[in-house]
Design brief:
This protein has about 200 residues and is mainly α. The protein has helices at about 5-30, 50-70, 75-95, 110-140, 140-170, 175-200. The longest helix has 27 residues, at about 5-30. It contains six helices and no strands. Helix 2 (about 50-70) runs antiparallel to helix 3. The termini are close together. The chain has one domain.
Length: about 200
């Protein structure tokens, strides 16, 4: 892929990240519960009034990961593989919805669909964090490296707190707010990195 081609793909990645996030936020906004309650995945259950918008949003976010990976292929090859894999898991998360309430162990009884959905979602998010951390450590371009470091500094403590919350508390306002807070910097990193690649002047290496 040429430098101009990578820049265009990165621009599409940033746009897809923004559009997918907006769709998911809208789908959550029409749920019976307040926006800050319940897991984000509950927007995709079949009983949700706008589940198709939620799933479309998640698929769009998954596409943004694949596009960003393609745009970074020549800059950080490992990140391309991680983001493409994350996009694949994201697509599985969109295709296999959880049951109402998205019950998760150890506090609730889960169905196989719940476990597949949760596993795919965790894998997607985890690979995004790995990609972000890799860019923060080894990206050749200083702007990409600095941006990833900033978002890592915000995202990692929130992700760790979320894991602790899921294991110690389970479903509730605490984990609901943490989930949203932890995912926001990850999505913002995708959009910001796409814009940086789109606007950079030096050729890719």
């Amino acid at each position: 892929m040429t430098s101009n081609g990578s820049r265009r793909v990165a621009g599409f990645a940033a746009a897809a990240a923004a559009a997918g996030t907006a769709a998911v936020m809208y789908a959550l906004g029409v749920l019976p519960e307040p926006w800050l309650r319940g897991y984000i995945s509950e927007g995709g259950v079949e009983a949700s009034p706008r589940h198709w918008i939620y799933r479309t949003g998640i698929l769009t976010l998954a596409a943004s990961l694949v596009l960003l990976g393609a745009a970074l292929r020549r800059l950080v090859p490992f990140v391309c593989a991680a983001l493409v894999a994350a996009g694949g898991f994201g697509a599985v998360s969109a295709a296999v919805s959880c049951t109402p309430g998205c019950p998760l162990p150890p506090y609730e009884s889960s169905t196989p669909k719940d476990l597949v959905h949760a596993g795919a979602s965790v894998a997607a998010v985890g690979l995004v964090v790995v990609a972000m951390g890799t860019v923060a450590l080894i990206a050749l371009q200083p702007a990409l490296r600095r941006t990833a470091r900033v978002f890592c500094a915000v995202c990692l403590p929130l992700m760790l707190a979320l894991v602790v919350g899921l294991l110690a508390v389970g479903r509730g306002m605490f984990t609901s707010v943490l989930e949203r807070a932890a995912l926001l910097p990850a999505v913002c990193w995708i959009a910001a990195t796409g814009l940086l690649v789109l606007l950079r002047r030096e050729p890719s290496r």
